[in-house]
Write a structure and sequence with these properties.
Rieske domain-containing protein, 2Fe-2S, 1 helix, Rieske Iron-sulfur Protein, 2 iron, 2 sulfur cluster binding, binds FE2/S2 (inorganic) cluster, metal-binding, mainly beta
Amino acid sequence: MIEIAKVGDVLPGGMMFVKAGERELCLCNVNGEYYAVSRRCGHMNAPLNMGTLDGYILTCGLHNISFDVRTGKSLCPMVPHYMPGAPIQSSTVDNYMGWVEDLIKHTTICDIKTYKAIVEGDSIKVDI
Ligand code: FES
């Protein structure tokens, strides 16, 4: 077990980037229970600690794919930022955003790795 943080470093409902050896993890506090998951999104490697945490659901800030921090399973397909048919400012932006959405919808979404996190005294440790 490797210490990755102290109790109180991350408040309930919060997340933080931590390192465990060479691994980058995202430590999540769900109502006082700690969950450690891979920091990198299973879609295109965005840092998940920059997303949002709502209960057990961690949502990536880049393309809004959600993961359950208890299992690492992805929960939904990508929610596009670009909504076909929405009013647009220019055909150039429309063409570009359409191209980006078409590109990323063909990208595989992988589940994220989870790590067992425990509290010992005032330390939060993970099993790597
Ligand atoms: S990189 Fe996280 S949803 Fe695309």
